[in-house]
Amino acid sequence: MKDLTPAPGSLDPAETLDRADLEALQLTRLRQTLQHVYANVPLYRAKFDAAGITPETVTTLADLAKLPFTTKDDLRQSYPFDMFAVPRERIARVHASSGTTGKPTVVGYTAEDIDHWADLVARCLRAAGVRPGDLVHNAYGYGLFTGGLGAHYGIERLGATVIPMSGGQTARQVQLIEDFRPKAILVTPSYMLNILEEYRHQGLDPRTCPLEVGIFGAEPWTPAMRAEIETAFDMHAVDIYGLSEVMGPGVAQECVDTKDGLHIWEDHFLPEVIDPKTGAVLPDGKEGELVFTTLTKTGMPVIRYRTRDLTRLMPGTVRTHRRMQKVTGRSDDMIILRGVNVFPTQIEERVLATPGLAPYFQIELVKQGQMDAMRVHVEPLPGGDAEACKQSLQKAIKDIVGVSCDIIAADPGGVERSQGKARRVVDNRSKS
Ligand code: DLL
């Protein structure tokens, strides 16, 4: 793999601000944001009033802990536009989540927000090793999802050339990668595995593909998946994190030269990690739920937004901004099986570590009598010993994750393929 470390001096000066200057900037921006939401968003005014707080209460960054949290429910109850902090006419764009339960959550951006967003995605791309003039294949979905358009404007802002492919049409993705020869790809890691399968299906060697780096996010993925993709394509695989409520892709990015967690762009977002049960702020280094306060957004700022993503904060390394560890999962994705907590990423690690299995899997939850049970659907590679693979995976899940489960071997292609964000868990408990 090529060395893609950014040249010294090519970074945005904000990325290496002294901590003291960064924190002073954060406090100024935090206070402006609080004034703005208190004056313009009835939900925030009501919450602050109920807690006996005004924007003036906050005189230090530590005072943030006095403010109430914002949740996805608050956004749902404000559907569609009540969280906007500017008149609707000043909103230049809306995005929305798919809304698996009930109404989608809607987010709105002013032109200034979109401008900052493009700057931050450009910053992420640079950290990932992309340079002005490079060709970049964007396979995040375009539309209400923030992935496609968010990445698109950042690629343009960096001065790179964007191929706005969007998701789907896997054979076409491979054709364009081979013909246009992009240096970088932006896509979910699970969909990258479909592209890998299509390469092999077309009889092409993925290791000779032109890609030098993949910028993968929008879903949890493991170091084992990184190794799988890096080896298969002979390319770097780095992590990009974000969520619509806070902005979209580009809230945090892993640097290609260190791959040591994701630097959170703290000049725009103030992170906290809390105990998900008590809401208490945890010290850096302790794992808990990630919470964000936006510092520069004008269209729809969020104050102490509970992401449900589980991670921990760590000091910066090649940037002064703090890092977050790769997200292990969302609290809502956690499966509780006979008292043991299981995340789909733990199963992903075990599947990828089992020789003889293709890197595709899906977890199915069923009822066996009164008890919940877990089935893991996998695909043994043709020509191998399917029974031995099943047994070895079952044993690894029992020994390392700590739960018993059934392993179901599907024919090649039998496990559902991701079209964007992978559907890792299918809950059939009400059907069994
Ligand atoms: O997924 C934004 C995005 C697009 C990020 C493209 C990166 C690349 P939402 O659809 O609102 O936004 O989903 C946000 O996805 O709270 C996490 O649970 C999960 N997520 C996003 N990035 C990562 C990541 C976009 N790198 C939700 N690792 C978040 C783990 C991630 N989970």
> Helicity, in percent?
25-40%
**Beta-strand share of residues:** 15-25%
Structural class: alpha/beta
- The global form is globular
Number of strands: 21
What's the story with the biggest beta sheet? 9 strands, mixed
Mean pLDDT: 97
Descriptive overview:
The chain is 30% helix and 24% strand. The protein has 432 residues and is an alpha/beta fold. A nine-stranded mixed sheet has the order 4-3-5-6-7-8-9-14-13. A four-stranded antiparallel sheet has the order 10-11-12-15. The protein has a four-stranded mixed sheet with strand order 20-19-18-21. Helix 7 runs parallel beside helix 8, helix 8 (223-233) crosses helix 9 (344-353) and helix 9 packs across helix 10 (386-401). The longest helix has 22 residues, at 19-40. Bound molecules: 5'-O-[hydroxy(phenylacetyl)phosphoryl]adenosine.
Search tags:
432 residues; 9-stranded mixed sheet; 10 helices; 21 strands; binds 5'-O-[hydroxy(phenylacetyl)phosphoryl]adenosine
What's the SSE blueprint?
Layout: H1 19-40, H2 42-50, H3 72-77, E1 93-96, E2 106-109, H4 111-127, E3 135-138, H5 146-158, E4 161-163, H6 170-180, E5 184-187, H7 189-201, E6 213-217, H8 223-233, E7 236-243, E8 248-254, E9 262-264, E10 269-274, E11 288-294, E12 305-311, E13 313-314, E14 323-324, E15 329-330, E16 335-337, E17 340-342, H9 344-353, E18 357-368, E19 371-380, H10 386-401, E20 406-409, E21 425-427
Parallel strand pairs: 3-4, 3-5, 5-6, 6-7, 18-21, 19-20
Antiparallel strand pairs: 1-2, 7-8, 8-9, 9-14, 10-11, 11-12, 12-15, 13-14, 16-17, 18-19
Helix pairs in contact: 1-2, 4-5, 6-7, 7-8, 8-9, 9-10
Bound molecules: 5'-O-[hydroxy(phenylacetyl)phosphoryl]adenosine.
5'-O-[hydroxy(phenylacetyl)phosphoryl]adenosine is lined by residues 97, 140, 145-147, 217-220, 239-244, 248-249, 307, 309, 327, 330.
Domain AMP-dependent synthetase/ligase: 80-292
InterPro entries: Adenylate-forming_Reductase, AMP-bd_C_sf, AMP-dep_Lig_C, AMP-dep_synth/lig_dom, ANL_N_sf, PA_CoA_lig_proteobact_actino, PA_CoA_ligase
Enzyme class: ligase
